[in-house]
Amino acid sequence: MKTRDTKKAGDLLRTLAEYKTLRLEQALRLFPGPVISYLRRQGRICDRPEGRIAASEDVSPDPGAEKAVWLLLDFIGRVDYHAAGDFPVTLYFFLGEELYEVVYIPPGQETLICHAMAAHQASSKRICIIESTEQIEKIDFPGISGFCTVNEAGDIQYYQRN
């Protein structure tokens, strides 16, 4: 394996450590080339149910992180850096000079997330991943740039507050 492929392998393993699991399609878009098959042959990544890969067999997929990675992939050609966040932020990424926080808000958790996000300084743009547009009226905290829904296939619909 070439040195640059070894670096990609390390990057993929770090990414899996942060996001726990990735759908195979996500991993291939983040890390094109032979790095996934290389790590499989070495036994350093595992195939998980429903077309996912993980660094170990004992991790479960995080639906919020999976949706946040789909959102990240929508911008990936312009992203300078990305990392998993800590509750309530699911993922951070830099797009040019701007820091974005991606916040996954499951139905019924709107109030909790709003309180948690209100405690964070709004020095970044915030994108809220929601399950349905009915949630938008229940969500209010500083820095919201927009909302989106993400389906299982990774299709994204963006929304602005009226």
Layout of helices and strands:
Layout: H1 3-19, E1 21-23, H2 24-30, H3 35-42, E2 46-48, E3 52-54, H4 63-75, E4 79-84, E5 91-95, E6 98-105, H5 110-119, E7 125-130, E8 144-150, E9 156-159
Parallel strand pairs: 6-7, 7-8
Antiparallel strand pairs: 1-3, 2-3, 4-5, 5-6, 8-9
Helix pairs in contact: 1-3
Structure description:
By secondary structure, the chain is an alpha+beta fold. The chain is 34% helix and 28% strand. It has five helices and nine strands; from the N terminus they run αβααββαβββαβββ. It has a six-stranded mixed β-sheet with strand order 4-5-6-7-8-9. Strands 1-3-2 form a three-stranded antiparallel β-sheet. Strand 6, helix 5 and strand 7 form a beta-alpha-beta unit. The chain is elongated and about 50 Å long. The N and C termini lie far apart (52 Å). The relative contact order is 0.12.
Give a concise summary.
The chain has 162 residues and is α+β, with helices and mostly antiparallel strands. The chain has helices at residues 3-19, 24-30, 35-42, 63-75, 110-119; strands spanning 21-23, 46-48, 52-54, 79-84, 91-95, 98-105, 125-130, 144-150, 156-159. The strands form 2 sheets. Strands 4-5-6-7-8-9 form a 6-stranded mixed beta sheet. It has a 3-stranded antiparallel beta sheet with strand order 1-3-2.
